[in-house]
Amino acid sequence: MALDDYVWAAGVATDLVNTAPEVWHGEDKLPDLPSLAAFAEQHSILVNIRPSDLRAVHRLRVAVRDLIDQPIQDRLINGATALTSTAAQITLLASAGNARWAVSLKPTATTSDALSVVCGIGILGVVRTLGTERFRACDAPTCRGAFIDTTRPGRRRYCMPNLCGNRVNVAKHRSRRVTIKHHDT
């Protein structure tokens, strides 16, 4: 995995924390091993999944959410550094005149180990490149999601823009329609 791809890694961290039951009003989006396998595959994390991985990923999800919810620079750096401790080797890959830092996992790495490294790299990259103000709670009034904003302008407001953003826009539209109907009568 390339270390300089913190945007992708922060996106994985965001997606992971937003699978939690509190975000989905009680429904866990990672309830079993097949859903964990689908999540890992969707994010190109190709590690053999073991039965013990589900519980470990749930613990990781809580740890990453805790970091996002309390974005204090030293805390983020220490927490993310701990998350990357399962890395086996960090190296410089050179290809076609382009050098990139990369990390490899230990051969015995679990899905939780892989996700932990990815989330740690995402958090560290955002802290270094964009700052701690990019760690946010969702602005949607009924959502308890959180996210790491890696957009260029840094104005992202929703953990899942296609879901939360659309819900807010639909609610505003309906509110305007009701106001107009009452005004016309």
Helices, strands, pairings?
Elements: H1 6-17, H2 33-42, H3 53-69, H4 73-83, E1 87-95, E2 98-105, H5 111-129, E3 135-137, E4 146-148, H6 161-184
Antiparallel strand pairs: 1-2, 3-4
Helix pairs in contact: 1-3, 1-5, 3-4, 3-5, 4-5
Describe the structure.
It is a single chain. This protein is α+β, with helices and mostly antiparallel strands and 185 residues long. The chain has a single domain, classed as Jann2411-like domain (Jann2411-like fold, Orthogonal Bundle). It is 50% helix and 12% strand. The chain is built from 6 helices and 4 strands; from the N terminus they run ααααββαββα. Strand 3 and strand 4 form a beta hairpin. Helix 4 packs antiparallel against helix 5. The protein starts with 5 loop residues before the first helix and ends with a helix. The model has no long low-confidence stretch (mean pLDDT 88).
Task: List the keywords.
alpha+beta, Jann2411-like fold, two-stranded antiparallel ribbon, 4 strands, globular
Alpha carbon gyration radius? 19 Å
The CATH homologous superfamily is named Jann2411-like domain
Q: What is the SS-derived class?
A: alpha+beta
SS element count, helices: 6
Strand content bin: 5-15%
The helix/strand series, from N terminus to C terminus, equals: HHHHEEHEEH
Number of strands: 4
Percent helix among the residues? 40-55%
Distance between the termini: 62 Å
**Average pLDDT number:** 88
Q: Tell me, what is the CATH class?
A: Mainly Alpha
Question: What is the third-level CATH name, the topology?
Answer: Jann2411-like fold
Lateral strand order in the biggest sheet? 1-2
Uncertain residue segments: none
- Write the CATH architecture name: Orthogonal Bundle
